[in-house]
Design goal:
By secondary structure, this protein is α+β, with helices and mostly antiparallel strands. The protein has two domains: 166 residues, 3-Layer(aba) Sandwich (Aminopeptidase), CATH 3.40.630; 125 residues, 3-Layer(aba) Sandwich (Aminopeptidase), CATH 3.40.630.30. The chain has ten helices and twelve strands. Helix 4 crosses helix 5. The radius of gyration is 20 Å and the shape is globular.
Length: 333
Amino acid sequence: MSSDTLIPSAFVGDPDLQRLHSFFLAHNQFDGDTRWTFGTSLKSAYVNCFDFMNHTPLVQLWTDTDGELQAVSRLGLGPGEWFYQLKPDWRSSDQAKVVVEQANAAFELLSDHESWITACYRSKTGEIDLLRGYGYAEDGESEVFMTRGLDGPIEPASRPPGIEVGLLDQTNTAQVAERGLAQVDAFSDGEPTTEAVAWICRSLPHQISYGRPDTFPHVIAVDPEGSILSFADVYLDRTNRIGEFEPVGSRKSARLRGLAKAVLLRGLHEMQSAGMRHATVRTGIDNAAAIASYESVGFNTVDHLIRFRKQRLTPKIATEQSVAEADGVIESG
């Protein structure tokens, strides 16, 4: 650690792309635990920076005095939520305080929310104590964190009648586009909107290229007409021998047919063949169907992600003046 000072600057897009990508690679964050502060997979944390960049977020980069990226925070002013991640050597309460204080100041100045939330795993008692010290209170569970070992035998991958379970051809633009449409269908409430389709067009290239220059298996279940019905993306942390699923989903019309289990089993075999020793996955606490699917292939819940909410100290509606004032907070800390 060249200094004990973190210096904030705004994420501006392409010029910061490579170092942001490198920051969110698992082998740069692993310290014996994969329960990241962001509360999501690192892949999702990386990809969501681009989703938020098309709305009204503050994606904050924190560097040391040598210009090395040591922390990232992402403030969603619209939904009223924020998350952060520090590299292992910088995970002290003093460094985290700087990030938490800036997030609170930004919400006070830039938003009209009466409260805002962040998240922390139940097992992270030190981080929970820090949040409580700043007035955050527990606001329910949001996700489960599940793991399973890969040293033993794995059930043979199934293939439902008429369905081909294989790997996405990442050079096939038509199949990649179909994979994107399957994800929109899987995660949309009702009919996918134009905005949701536009989002996947922006984010899918970042999903598929995550981990570059390495490539990773993207498992798909395809019907005879070429429609992708179910999918499970696999990330391989070869340094620490940990595999992770993110995302996993099935089209609404293809559920309850065993397709999710089929792509998960194929993904587990891909992980095991690549030398992974453990697998992880995360899903919503209320997603009983997904939890059951993961349990059916050997996953067990080992932790819960908890929402923490902070009430505004001084009621205030964001104005042009407050935005200008906050620029000083965001740029200079």
